[in-house]
Specification:
Elements: H1 10-24, E1 31-33, H2 42-47, H3 52-75, E2 81-85, E3 94-95, H4 98-106, E4 110-114, H5 124-134, E5 140-144, E6 149-150, E7 162-163, E8 165-167, H6 168-174, H7 181-190, E9 194-198, H8 204-209, E10 216-219
Parallel strand pairs: 1-4, 2-3, 2-4, 5-9, 8-10
Antiparallel strand pairs: 6-7, 9-10
Helix pairs in contact: 1-3, 5-7, 6-7
């Protein structure tokens, strides 16, 4: 949503599409999980009294809007994409089928996963971990607005210290807000590393995938 406070900022979309275009052009297989917090946050609505399941379904529908916006931004740059939704709406997106998603990626298409897992009570983080494991991804890249994981909020605490590396257990024990505990546990149980990075820094995606030090990496202690 950029600085608008709500909705989709075309400049942010274009900047993200530009970064993805560079990486996709290098033959790297990419899948993207999008959230919907710029349009509707299910947890926030539930905390105000709305039924949690209804609020979560509304949040999932918001992710469809973001997925279509990102698809448009990518395809205007010549990047072939497919939006796959966990909630069927075949007029605008393909239904999520794991083998089909893998096949799209093998053909060089960027796959955008929308509508979360299709179930309430599961976050976008958990969706990202689940889809990454289903398609045999090598890494989960958690895009944020800060330069990695800190011991305090760097936006409010200038003395916050950034971690270069963390283990899954570190994240859970310290209750660091990297991803929710279900997502971290999924990654930990399956040895799937997580890179937490600032998506607003141009070129960060490409640098991370080249093996350069970007953000914070979360992985097991048996590396």
């Amino acid at each position: 949503m950029g600085d608008a406070g709500y909705g989709v900022d075309p400049a942010v979309l274009d900047a993200l599409a530009r970064q993805i275009e560079k990486v996709a052009g290098n033959g790297i297989e990419i899948a993207i999980v999008v959230g919907g917090g710029n349009i509707f946050r299910g947890l926030k609505a539930a905390s105000s009294g709305m039924d949690r399941a209804a609020a979560d379904y509304m949040g999932m529908l918001a992710t469809i809007m973001n997925a279509l916006a990102l698809q448009d931004a990518l395809e205007r740059r010549g990047v072939f994409t497919r939006v796959m939704s966990a909630i069927e709406m075949q007029q605008v997106a393909e239904p999520y089928i794991r083998r089909r998603a893998i096949r799209h990626m093998e053909k060089g298409r960027v796959v955008i996963f929308a509508a979360g897992t299709g179930n309430p009570y599961f976050t976008t983080d958990t969706t990202a971990a689940l889809r990454a494991l289903e398609i045999h991804a090598d890494v989960v890249m958690k895009a944020t607005k800060v330069d990695g994981v800190f011991d305090a909020d760097p936006k409010t605490n200038p003395d916050a210290v950034k971690f270069e590396e963390l283990t899954y257990i570190d994240v859970l024990n310290r209750n660091l807000q990297v991803m929710d505990s279900t997502a971290i546990s999924l990654c930990m149980d399956n040895g799937l590393p997580i890179i937490v990075f600032n998506m607003e820094v141009e070129g960060n995606i490409e640098r991370a995938l080249k093996g350069e030090r970007v953000g914070t990496i979360v992985r097991g202690d048996d590396r």
